[in-house]
Structure formats: structure tokens, C-alpha cells
Fold each of these.
Amino acid sequence: MAKISAVEKNKARRKLVGRYAAKRAALKAIIMDKSKPIEERFKAQLQLAALPRNSSKTRIRNRCEVTGRPRAYYRELGMSRIALRELGNRGLIPGLVKSSW
């Protein structure tokens, strides 16, 4: 089980990303638009840098919904390999069968 503080920090980051997503997208569009004057693009870049760091999408860490584990995460299922195996062995995941050969 992951530290609760790490899981909560990641939840706060997700919330912050959602709050600033539109503003970040607008500023990035101005920065990438080569037809705009260089002063306006530079001003937009400074405004983007002034936003909170945790509002960047790349700072979000995918974590297991069951345990909070940050590694070995399956995106389609939203959980780690260990949680997947435990729930699969208990028969709680439909269609998942333990293989043996």
C-alpha cells in the first residue's frame, strides 16, 4: 500500500491540471503561433511559467486505484499487476482466468 500522502498529492495534482487546462492550452497556442509578434509570444511564455508547476499534465503519476502503487500500472484497467492478480485469483474480475500449462 502506497503512502496516503503520495496518493493525496497526486489527486491534488489531477484537480489542479483540470482547473488550469484551458488557460495552459490558450497560452501554448499563442506561443506556438509564429504569425504573432515575438513580444506577445514571450509575454505568453512568461505567463505560462508563472502558473503552478503541478498544473502541468506531465506531473501526474498513474497510480493503482486499489493500492496506490505507482509502478506496473495497466492503463486499461487502472490498477497494478499485483492488484490485478489478487482480484483475478479471487474471481472478482469477469473474464480473467488464471493460466496454467
Amino acid sequence: MALSLPALNSCRDESLEPTLQQSKDLETSINTVEDLNAVLNAGYNRLSGVAYYGRDYIIFGEVRSDNAFSNANSNRFVTAARMDLTVNDAYAADTWAAIYGAIATANVVIGKDAATITEGTTAEINQLKGEALIMRALGHFDLLKLYGQQNVTAGGDPTLGIPYVTTFRDQNNLLPSRNTVQEVQKMVMDDLNEALKLMSPSANRNSHYFTTHAANALMARAALYFKDYSTAESAASKVIGQFSIAPAGSFASTFSTDNAMNHIFAVAASPTDNLGINGLANIYQDTPYGDVAATKNIYDTFSATDVRKAMMAFDGQFYRNVGKYPSKDPYKDDIPVMRYEEVVLTYAEALFRNGKTAEALIQLNKIPANRNAAPYAAATLSNILLERRKELAFEGFRFDDLARNGMAIPKVDLLQTFGDTDLPYGSYNYAFPIPATETGANSNIVQNFGYK
């Protein structure tokens, strides 16, 4: 049912919204660039939802790692942290639906015939279509990382990915099958390359919107995940120099600043438009929710002078992330989805993987040089992954970094709830289950290995 996708909502053009809600013909509902942009804005709004980048997707990458755990303060993220979700778990169902909802909105924009747009230039239309293609690529890549079988080696079919949906309400394919991991990889890259063909750097908007830089940053991220290190290096190199690494003195403030110097793409929030108590600040900090605490292990990873250590705090019971997404009442902080520092570290790893260790070390040491931390003596995979862990902590990257490198989930804290020892790489629960709501509605969907 999620793949058949309900009518769009949250459009920010009042004259357009009821037309879409009534499911009228989209060809007559979208006539101008402003209409097209209103639909795309609905997609950006979907990205900010609690089940996607507003909270849950980021938390999934942390509580299933050695960075954080659920303390069950309000019984949130308990099953995700234990890695024992069932097919009826709301976390699996809600995020599946939320991401495919964003993809549906993107597909409306992508599928709109430019010839039927009566107001607006071809360049303006192409820029919006390019942004939608990036949104579609990001959504499918994120779905694959969560539900794909590429990291499940103890049984099942490791080539099984997720359905790559390219048409809004395709009457000929309302019950799509799962594409293979390789097919998803190709389609993600194809969408990003097509976006770069359509878009112009001179027409890029601010970091609340996808840009040509975001397309290259996402391409580098995906290529690194798929072990295509040549593409990762090439794509990352196109972003290098376009932004600035936040210096030590202002690094913390970039998490409470709109369009900060290191933001490539961020989900927008404001004092009047935010998730409130359902957002990241309320789940990470010592609040009535406060379910996601940090491990002492990640806290001890930072040296005493490292500015990132000061962005954590001990509340007498738990270590907390208080520096990223810090604002409460109101919960107004933007949520960076792509930061420049990530691209620098991706570039360093790609250079290392491609045998360019001297260049890799230069890029790697740019981060600690701006965090009051000691430089690395050598570029090694261990050092690069350590710096990624330190720099990107609490932003949702850690589980994927462990998984894409074939690593177990380390048991570093007794409060981690997935078991008594490291969770071996390849276990069935490295992937979320396909929601029962989906398998029940779509007979072509195969359930993930290990789930009933």
C-alpha cells in the first residue's frame, strides 16, 4: 500500500493543495514553475518528517552501533537498538512509508511534461527536475541501506534490494518487485548523473535545497558505500573547495545556524516550523523523552582538547549528545544531511582505497586540525574510520560505516541491548524487515531473510 502512495499533502501553495488532495489529474493541476516548486516543497517537507530525517532515520544509524543505545526512558527505539524488530514494528513501517512518500512527490515533478508548463523557463523547470532526481536517488539509497540484503550473509539472498519506483502511481506497476542491489546502485547513479545534466551551478539555491554540490556529495557517499572508489574520489573532488570546514571555535555553532559554511544540504527547521518534542534534541538530551544516550566509549574516544568532547555531557546517569541539534523551546535547528566534513573524509577514504595514501593523509588531517585534536601519522583505514566516527557521531553514519566494511557491531557498553557480545557481521538483523503492511498488500514483495 505504501508503494501505491496516498495523495500528496503538505503542499505550500494553497490553491494547489486541495487539487492534489482530491486526486485530480496532475496534468491540469501543475501549470507553472511555481506550481512545480510547490509540489517539490512538499517533498522537502516529507524529508523532515519524524520517521525520516526529522529523527528516526538518523537514530537508527546510531543505536545500532557502538555510539549510542536506547535507555528505554519512554520506550522509544528499544526494538531498533536491540535489533529485534518484527514485521509489525512501527519503526520499519513508518520509515518505509515516509521515504516512499518523498519519492512519490519527486516522481510527480520528474514526470511532469515540461511542454505543459505555461509559465517558467526551460532552465527553471530543469533545475527543479534535477532537485527532484536527487531527492529520488537519496530516498532509494536510504531505503536500500535500511532494508536491502547486501549486508546479510548468514542466509537469504544478499543481492535483494528494494523496489526502485520511477513513476507516480504507475497503473501498470502498482505492485512492484524488489530490484537487486546492483540495479538500485545503477539507478541511483543514473538519477544523479541526469540531475547534473539538467542543473546549473549558477541556479543553485541555498542549503535547504538540493544543488549540484549535493548531487556530487551524494554520489560520493553512495559510491563509497558501493565500493566504487574511483567514482567516489571523482565525485568528492568536485565538492572539495566549494565549502569550508568549520574551525574549532565555531564548529558547535554550525548545528544551530541556518545555511552554515559547511552545510551542503540540510533539512530546514524554524521557531514556527519544527518537530517539537518529537525531534532530535528531545530524544538525545536529558528530557522527559531522552531515550537515546551515548556510550562512554565514544565519549572517551575524544581527547580532552577536542572541541567535539565538549559537545557531549554526563547528566549523572548517561552520557549525552548536547552539541548537535541543541536547541529546545523552540526546537529550531536545521538538520544537516550532507556536511562538507563528510565529503572531505569520503575523499580521504577514496584516495586511500585508490592507493594515494599521501594525498589521503592530507585530507584526513584537515578535520582534526580544525577540532583541536592531534593529527594522524598515517592514512590507514582504521584511522579514517575512527575520524569518521568522531566527526560524524550522532548524525546517523556509524552503522553504515561498520556494515559497508563487513564489521561486527561492537559491544562496548553493558547498556547496549542487542546481546552479550559483538553482533556478527552478516546477521539477518543487519537489515530491517519489510513491513507486514507492504507484504500483505503487495504479493510481489519478498520478505527479508530471518523475518516471518
Amino acid sequence: MAGDLPGPDFWALIRPHTGEVTDVRPTEYRSDLTAAVECETGRFFVKAMRNRPGGRRDQMLRERSINPFVRPIAPALLWAAEDEDWIVLGFEFVRARKAEFHPDSPDLPAVVALLNRIGEMALPEVAHDWRESRWDRFADEGAPSLFRGDALLHADINPSNLLVGSHGMWAVDWAWPTRGAAFIDPAMLVVQLISAGHSAESAEAWTAGCKAWANADPKAIDAFAVATVRMWREVADRWPDGSWTRVIVSAAEAWAAHRGVVVA
């Protein structure tokens, strides 16, 4: 095991669920630890965060709470562990790769189908108070009301969170599910598709296969496009060395231009 992995106390915390750990293969997800773990009781995908107050702990708690309601399309949460230092989730391990979003990708029909499955899921009671508000401060005056709704949103649509397996697709990393307008997940897909090489017209053509998009108010989509540009510009200003942020900013700007909206 790599030397930068957590120390013995961490492995002691999860040992009741894993038994003896024989192999740990870290992955790319944005957590203090995400890894495929081989152990005495099988194989798990383990996600762990330092147990500190704030957004990242809240994300772990939300992901733990929502999992029973999204299991048809998300790997099952099989166990959880927590102490003063760590909060840990142990998921069913699935053999899969991240989806490919480029224009010629054979994954695109399945991506659209998966977003439709997410859009068809009922909002569970646990998510009733998780109102989507992250785009509010970037929106024009009065526009945030257009982002309200009663749909269960994944709200982090990107290729790494949509996994392709031999028997279908999975939506993973339900770290910040929210309640909002159903078009928001498909709108996030549009920006991701443009960043992968699609024209804005092509990206919207693919997203048109999402029922939530087809039923959305165009004014709400326009308002969301404006807020998306402003949000990603702020992210890029905060992390100016991240080339991926510049790509996303350019994609968001291209989308806004395609829709004919002006972003101040």
C-alpha cells in the first residue's frame, strides 16, 4: 500500500466491515480518500473524508442518506463508519469506466437515458429540505425562482460521475443531491458536452432527448446559462492554474452565446 494512505487508526475503524485489507488502489475522485479496497470480506469502493464541520462532511452525510433511494442506478452503500477523525462510506464495487462525452462517443445515448432515469426518480422525504441554491447568487435579479422545483437532482453531472459497465451505466458520487428544477441536470450535461468538443447546437440536440429539458421553460434555461457562466468564472478566478476550469468557462460562454443571452 502507498505511503500516503491513512494510518493504522483509519484501517482499524473500518476493520469490522472489511476484515484484513490486502490491497488499496486509490482513484481520482475529490475526497481525502477514494479507493478500491480488496479485503477479507470482499471488494469495496471506499470513500472517506476528514470528519470536520462544514460542506465536505455534509456531503458525506447526504450521500449516505440518499443512497437507499437511488440504488437502481447507483452502487449500493453497504456500510459506513465514523469516529472523531474520519467519516467513511463503503460501497458495492462495480467494474466500470467513466463515460466518454466526445462527439463520436457511443456512450451518449446511454448518458441521455441515464439522465432520464434520474429525472423519473421520486423526490424522497429525506431530500425535501435540500433546496438547490448554489446558482442563486450568480443569477440575475428574480431568476433564482426559475431554478426551483420538486425534482431530485444529482447536480454534479460530469463524465467521472457517469460510469459505463458491461451491463449498463451508473450515476455515482451523490455528494450533493438537491431538490430543484428538473432541467438543471440536463443543463449541466450541455456544458460538459461542449467542453468535450461538441458545438453548443450539438450539445443541446443531445440534451433534447432528456424529458426534463424538453419540458423546461426556455427563459429558465437562459437564466441558468447566465448563472453558469458567472459561477465558472468565479471558480476559474479562484483556481487560475487549473486548465480544466478555463475549458469549462469557455464551454459555458459558448452555450450562453448560442442561446443569445448576454452575461455581464
